[in-house]
Specification:
The protein has about 180 residues and is mostly helical. It has helices at about 25-45, 55-60, 70-85, 90-105, 110-120, 120-135, 140-180; strands spanning about 45, 55. Strand 1 and strand 2 (about 55) form a beta hairpin. The model is unreliable at about 1-15 and about 15-20 (pLDDT under 50).
């Protein structure tokens, strides 16, 4: 007795829900591996001796006044770029951008921001969101590409603005202290 398997198209509007599994391809797996590696380097490269905590490049870059957090978050936008390359749904990219924005905004607070980066691990969160969304079949349209580009641009612009404000404040404090 032979079993018959029925395949349906994505446009099937029948009442039964269909489960679609994306094929594993080398390009997708390569992009996901890049995101995972980048997240590990930025968030969990080195174990803090005597603890179960790991730190990465992100909180270390955050120790550089003014530009360290911006550099860390600009590196983090690579994962956003991978998300656009994989054509993830825009709500996922918006969440990923928000993670970077939160990390970048709180990261500018000296010392506290660095501890926050160790705890929050925005890059690891984004890599997990990327992997989860990349395995789902729903894809977006050209309008969503425009939206995602705007989100990435807005995130970068916000980070640059935050850097400018910090640099301006440091300059003002310096001139006050120097008596100028």
């Amino acid at each position: 007795m032979a079993h018959q398997v029925e395949f349906s198209s994505a446009q099937d509007t029948g009442s039964k829900p269909r489960v679609h599994v994306l094929p594993r391809d080398e390009a997708r797996e390569h992009l996901l591996a890049i995101a995972d590696l980048l997240a590990k380097v930025m968030d969990t490269t080195v174990r803090i001796p005597g603890t179960s905590w790991y730190i990465g490049l992100d909180p270390l870059l955050g120790l550089i006044p003014g530009i360290g957090d911006a550099i860390a978050n600009l590196i983090g936008t690579i994962i956003l770029g991978l998300a656009t390359r994989l054509q993830l749904p825009r709500i996922v990219v918006a969440r990923m951008s928000l993670n970077l924005l939160i990390n970048g905004t709180i990261g500018v607070i000296p010392i506290f921001g660095d501890f926050f980066s160790v705890w929050f691990r925005s890059h690891t969160r984004n890599a997990a969101l990327l992997r989860e969304a990349a395995m789902r079949p729903d894809r977006e349209t050209a309008v969503d590409w425009f939206y995602v580009s705007g989100i990435i641009g807005g995130t970068v612009a916000t980070l640059i603005l935050a850097i400018a404000v910090v640099v301006w404040l440091v300059f003002k404090l310096w001139t006050m202290i120097a008596g100028g």
